[in-house]
């Protein structure tokens, strides 16, 4: 289904991004990986996806808190894999603090990675997508792009902004073959969430398992984590012909979180 297409997935060395990269590769897309981590581990992911799915893979360690490196990521994908048909803006971080104590530099960092990087990547990639009259831009927002929680001022602001950016880009390209949509996951058990579970366990002097259960019970009615593979399948759908009129949508896959 995606043979001959090239996908850039930001923050794909771990968690949801890796799940999305694997799902797109399983459908035949060549993949530009990005993100931080142990170089040997990243090399294993890169060669593993290539051999498991018979696709071309490349890797860029671009730091997406820096606009020039974000632009460089799109340039690297275009020169190494020939073009970019699918852009998945997934890289993101979380910082938790009440607003009055929220460190200024952390506010800037969360906004730069979770929101501004998507803007710079989209800006860099849209002209070539428009020239071919086909493109898929998928922004991994969050249920926190739709509702708020305490102590997440920067994250919630960035994710609401990302949903807004999704709508603007969708509208600007509405008469073209370029679509832009957002995916809004609830809790997914990745390193980003594990840190919050660990902090909860320490704060309440409970086990990590119990903290994980409480975290789910507080917000996610299914009491089950969403998986990176399930989110990957939603991204695959967004890349399909069936989704060609899905434009500016923010689809929540969240175990019922947003329905409450
Ligand atoms: P993760 O920590 O497992 O992965 C984050 C990825 O982003 C990693 O590959 C990391 O190296 C990369 N990254 C971080 N900073 C970067 C930078 N400056 N430049 C380039 N890459 C960078 O986290 P995850 O849970 O898989 O989160 C992925 C996305 O999904 C994020 O945008 C997050 O906000 C969103 N999300 C996660 C959940 C969840 O429950 N885990 C829920 C909703 C939304």
UniProtKB/TrEMBL annotation:
Oxidoreductase as UniProt keyword: yes
Signal peptide from the UniProt entry: none
Broad class of enzyme this protein falls into: oxidoreductase
Keywords recorded for this protein, A-Z: Oxidoreductase
GO molecular function: 3-hydroxybutyrate dehydrogenase activity
Coiled coil residues, start to end: none
UniProt entry tagged with the keyword Oxidoreductase: yes
EC nos: 1.1.1.30
The family this protein is said to belong to: Belongs to the short-chain dehydrogenases/reductases (SDR) family.
Protein name: 3-hydroxybutyrate dehydrogenase
UniProt organism field: Rhodoplanes tepidamans
